[in-house]
Amino acid sequence: MKVLILAQYFPPDMGGGSTRVSNIVKGLLKKNCDVTVVAAFPHYPHGKVPEHYKRKAIVSERFGNAKVYRVWIPSLPHSSSMKRLILHFCFVISSLFALPFVGDTDVVWGANPNLFCFFPSCVYGVFKNAPIVRNVDDLWPEVFYELGYVKSKGMRKALDFVAWFSYTVPAAITPISEGYKHVIVSKYGVPSEKVHVIEVGVETIKSVNVTANSYSGCFTVMYSGVLGLGYDFDIVLESAQYLQSNTDIIFVIRGIGEESRKLEKAIHHFGLKNIILDTRYLTKTELDALLKSADVFVLPMAGLDFVEEGLPTKVFEYQSYGKPILCISKGEAAKYIEKTKSGLVIKPKNIAQFVDAVKKLYINRQLGVDLGMNGREYVSNLTSDEVGEKMYNELIAVQ
Predict the structure, then answer these.
(1) How far apart (Å, rounded) are the C-alpha atoms in residues 240 and 273?
(2) pLDDT at residue 374, rounded to an integer
(3) Model pTM score
(4) What pLDDT digit, counting tens, does each position of 228-283 carry?
(5) How far apart are CA 172 and CA 162, in angstroms?
(6) Residue 382 contacts residue 199 (beta carbons within 8 Å)
(7) Closest CA to 73 of 45, 100, 99
(8) Going from the N-terminus, what domains does the chain have, and what CATH number goes with each?
(9) DSSP helix, strand, coil percent of the chain (3-state; round to 5)
(10) Of 65, 100, 78, which is closest to residue 18 (Cα–Cα)?
């Protein structure tokens, strides 16, 4: 089977979108598929396109046995919503640069960025006479509504129509969670049998000593990922205030995004000495070393309805390190953590409950080890081989 994948985010880019695509590509290659990827020049999250791509429109390279066509993208960091939109619109156009070079195709998978990727997928589908499958990593435009980016009723109707069209045209849809499937089926009237949940999964299970405690000799509660509006960092800051007297507990918030400035100001304003804000761009090796230093991971979902329907990639990544997860959620993430018995679930905005959970794991280290191992064991069945096979079965079914 010849598979064409359109993905703005692809390794060495960081983040959930890139992880999902790379896992699928590796899994499809092991099923002996002929895989071609059309991706943007490496740019996420720092916006620094490597020098050897500059002044070029398209570059051909390899990712294992997959052929990759890298196309132009402006050198912009993902530091604001406007810059993200510019990058997305640019990829819609530049992804078509590879059209003359892509050979015969049996199926097109529009991977990311979500709604935007649907449009070039349609173009490739028409020219290659191939069915298209649409991926869903986030619920757009619903998330835009919840975050207050779109308030006009007319604009909402227009965006809902575009979303409906993007769900109706593809031969199949592959969301990352059951919550997303529920919205797609119930709101847009898409037949349930057309929507197939395929989790993000992990590349590999990390080789790590789960009892290690190496970050400055302290009990480390860590968040790693996008510093965006979908996450509630206030509960982490306020909890850190309550726990300042315990000098053995430290909080680490690592990542980049529009919330970084706000976090920096709040930490300085409240004089929080037990929080480290790390906004450096880290290589995979550096990030791996940092994540291994955590005792507990935290997933502070903001409680937004449509955001809560998803299951962030970082959940699987956290589990692969064999560490317990403090999950602040009322949605899919909470259900998943409870099902896999890999952490403690806290209600959104409940500072007292979060503080108690941190103390509980600080006091009872064996509980943390047990929860972490539960998650590690569960996610071992969601490696690139497993999710790749799931995707293979869905793609071959639409030919």
Answers:
(1) 9
(2) 97
(3) 0.87
(4) 888 999 999 999 999 999 989 999 999 988 888 999 999 999 999 999 999 988 88
(5) 17
(6) yes
(7) 45
(8) 2-201+384-397 (3.40.50.2000), 219-379 (3.40.50.2000)
(9) 45, 20, 40
(10) 78
